[in-house]
Structures are given as structure tokens and as C-alpha cells.
Amino acid sequence: MLKIKRNKEKEVSSAILVYKKEKVDKKLKKMKSIKELLRK
Fold this sequence. Notes:
95% of the residues lie in helices and 0% in strands. It has 40 residues and is an all-alpha fold.
């Protein structure tokens, strides 16, 4: 029982990390495209 719970927590935390990383990547891409627009 405990092992399953541990795995679940790991899954959740890794899902959160992936979500955060994707959010940051999107932000960076947005900033990059804005910079390129400003350059034109």
C-alpha cells in the first residue's frame, strides 16, 4: 500500500515538473518571438 502511494507521489511531482518546464519553455518562446518582432 505504501509503495503505491510513494509511486503516485513521484508521478505527480514529475508531472508538475514537466508542466512547469513546458510553461517556462512557452514563456521563453513568446519572449523570443517578441524580440524578433521588435528587431524587424
